[in-house]
Design a protein that fits this description.
Layout lengths: L10 E11 L4 H9 L4 E6 L5 E7 L2 H12 L4 E13 H12 L1
Antiparallel strand pairs: 1-3, 1-4, 2-3
């Protein structure tokens, strides 16, 4: 039996999405989104579309969180919009060089 471990990386991932919930379940879908660690809702349109972001430390982390949200019974569709990756080790190295 193998033990599943989350690889610690120096990457920072942020991805944005548009969620299309069933109108009658809008509040439940918003609550489900906010219950996932690293999520933030930025806007909800009059039609009920929800714009939100997920932060994580890897593609797998973002994907796992996205999967939890997309299978909610009130979700019609979940569309990815943007995904950015920052390598924090490079940024920290550059900052350290500038300080020296």
């Amino acid at each position: 039996m193998t033990k599943k471990t989350e690889e610690i990386t120096s990457e920072y991932h942020v991805a944005s999405f548009v969620a299309y919930p069933i109108a009658e379940q809008l509040d439940e879908v918003k609550e489900a989104i906010l219950n996932v660690e690293g999520t933030e809702i930025h806007a909800t349109s009059e039609e009920g579309k929800i714009v939100f972001t997920i932060e994580g430390n890897s593609y797998r982390d973002i994907g796992s969180k996205m999967d939890v949200i997309r299978v909610h019974k009130g979700m019609i569709n979940l569309s990815p919009v943007y995904h950015q990756i920052l390598d924090e080790s490079i940024e920290n190295e550059q900052i350290y060089k500038e300080i020296k």
